[in-house]
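Review this chain:
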Amino acid sequence: MEIDTIYQNVKDTRGPQTQSHSQDEGQAQKKRGSRCLVLMTVCLGLICVVLLVFVILQLTVITDLADKNEELESILKLKNASKQVCFTISSELMTWSESRQYCRDRGADLIIINTEEKQRFISSFIKERVWIGLSDFENEGNMIWVDNSPLNQTFWYEGEPNSRDGDEDCIELDVGRHLVNNWNDLPCSFQIKCICEN
């Protein structure tokens, strides 16, 4: 009998342990499955976020390219009474007279700005100071354009023109001052870039 009791005790102790071990294994598998599911969900979420950022960036790039394309088209071609006008901006610094010659060598002349629309347009893409085709060096106090037309509409920066001792006879466009009212008088010997139109 004693052996039967021992065997029974051994049998009883193994049964619940095996069952507990199986239950523990099942719970561990469930935890691993849950972790895997959470990890997959997080990964899918991250992929969605990355794709969303990518799409937004692509749309931004496309929009920027479209804007730049429109700007370049506008810069290259400004329709004015059925005639095309092209603008050239010099890459080198020159005096006003050198700038005018630079433009003439390219079949153009320094730009004439006689409307607010043109002033706004030119000011929208100019990034630095440039000579324009306006001066009074031939007749002090009487501003005229390079085509000898009179000055009818002005876009002077506040306090300009302020020609000191009559030595500031040539006009620049300086967008660093103001978007529209940005004309300034300078000595013609000053060296800056220029903008030509044909």
